[in-house]
Design goal:
Strand content: under 5%
Helix content: over 70%
Radius of gyration: 47 Å
Number of helices: 3
Shape: rod-shaped
Number of strands: 0
Length: 133
Amino acid sequence: MSNKVENIGNQYTSQENKKKQRQKMKMRVVRKRIAVFGGILLAAILILIVLLVIQKHSNDQDAVERKHKEAQFQKQQDEEIALKEKLNNLNDKDYIEKVARDDYYLSNKGEVIFRLPGDNKSSKSKSSDDDDN
């Protein structure tokens, strides 16, 4: 066969050429539509990924803050329990009597309190601690 091929200029070949050109145009349009819709889909996926990352970061920060608040709450609960115990002790006559005897050297009728040389140092340190506060 020779390299030179000539088209016959009849009606059938011209119709076939027009069909091929229409098909090529349709394929171009389809490719453009696929490219546009694919780009839109890709942009939507990227936006969703960015939102996911932002939400994850926000959740991590909230979890850290929640743990901090829980620790703070636990500390306050412990403090409340200690204060309630102290209040209960202050309402207890035996405890008040013990504190009065130990810290203020108070006595009942007929009792004598003796101070030893070692006790003198501890009373001075207690009074100096009270002066600091």
